[in-house]
Amino acid sequence: MKKILLVEDEKGISSIVKAYLEKEGYIVFCAFDGKRAIELFKEENPDLIVLDRMLPLISGEEVLKNIRESSDIPVILLTAKVEEDDRIEGFQLGADDYVTKPFSPKELMERVKAILRRTSADSSNILSFDNGNLLINTENYSCKVDGKDISLTNNEFTILKVLFSKPGKIFTREEIIAIAFGESYEAYDRAIDTHIKNIRQKIESNPRDPKYIKTVYGIGYKAGEFN
Ligand code: CA
Questions:
Q1: Does the global pTM surpass 0.85?
Q2: Mean pLDDT score of the chain, rounded to an integer?
Q3: Cα(9) to centroid of ligand 1, in Å?
């Protein structure tokens, strides 16, 4: 289920929009000021943000700037101002869409759905784990850890993909070889160990205490489980 961060200090508007979003099946986190918005963004890793401009503590613009430093998450800006200049300024700040108050909640729902349709089509080949800290792109065989591009060999990538096809499931070395390279592929079990060691060097912040690829002694390996 998609998670939405709703940042709106007017309690009345917030509760109406929250109810509409929940009716559409989204999980909604509410922040009533800009500081909390940034905290919740980091904690909950939402799929989209509905962000009011005028907020206590930190303004909507500042929240957006802060979030844009690390993320291209879709953001719909809410504003009470109607001038065209503001609309342009909102887009320049990196908002994906812009809704002026007073707005119809139904219209906002349409915008939310349209943006999520667009972005989930773009990201259907990207598997996200550990709150987005590990991204595996199965289309172009690339991988990102903590926002940094990681260069993996084809074999390393394929092994990583096999393990993360079922996080928590234990794969024996023979299974990894069979699934990754095919039954006829001749590889020594220990070759897998070498690949795993190399992958860990690249993706784990502490390869001696790995969180993404766990060793199951006497059996094989498994991908770490994240919620
Ligand atoms: Ca406001």
A1: no
A2: 89
A3: 5
